[in-house]
Amino acid sequence: MNREIKIIDKELNVFAVDTDKAKYYIPNFGYVNAGFPSPAEDFVDDKISLDERYLTHPESTFLIIVGGESMYPVYQKNDILVIRTDLIPLHNDDIIVSVNNDDYTLKRFDKVNNKLIALNENYKNCVQINESDEVVILGVVGVLVREKSNRI
User: What is the CATH number of the domain that holds 65?
Assistant: First the structure.
């Protein structure tokens, strides 16, 4: 994957997706229970490719890194988001959006009330979108990747 970074505002960095390289497959051992283990679970030895799973539409997909805290705790600094540009935003989707040529930002889309909502209670809670506003939606969050530590 190409790691070229483009900064689109002070909180978001975009990574281009390059799909011309070889695919890498990793072992998939099935599901893990978050409760009590089931002795009946069969051992699964399958392989998956993360790009086949999460980058299914590379022509309409880009990666972006969260740099701000307005959507905390759902999204945290340095989270990697897989953004889909071919999806129409639905109610309560998280989107990359600009209103009236302002910086692009990550917000929850309240389609019913036509608002953009910050999830962090320390930030201005919402932006009302009016008919006269110029709204540019870059895409919808499809996948969130969060690294547990800096060991990678």
Answer: 2.10.109.10
Contact status, residue 26 vs residue 53, Cβ threshold 8 Å: no
Find all residues with CB under 8 Å of 80, minimum gap 6, and list them.
15, 63, 64, 65, 66, 144, 145, 146
In the chain, the number of structural domains is 1
Neighbours of 49 (CB within 10 A): 13
Contact 110, 92 (CB under 8 A): yes
Whether residue 148 contacts residue 127, with contact meaning beta carbons closer than 8 Å, is answered with no
User: Could you give the maximum distance between any two Cα atoms of the chain, in Å?
Assistant: 60
Q: Are strands 105-110 and 115-117 parallel, antiparallel or unpaired?
A: antiparallel
The pTM score is 0.74
pLDDT by residue (tens digit) across 88-125?
999 999 999 999 999 899 999 999 999 999 999 999 77
Domain span holding position 86:
5-23+39-145
Whether the CB-CB separation of 73 and 118 falls below 8 Å is answered with no
Residue closest to 64 by CA, chosen among 51, 53, 75 = 75
The answer to whether the CB of 93 falls within 8 A of the CB of 141 is: yes
Backbone angles phi, psi at 119, to 5 degrees: -85, -20
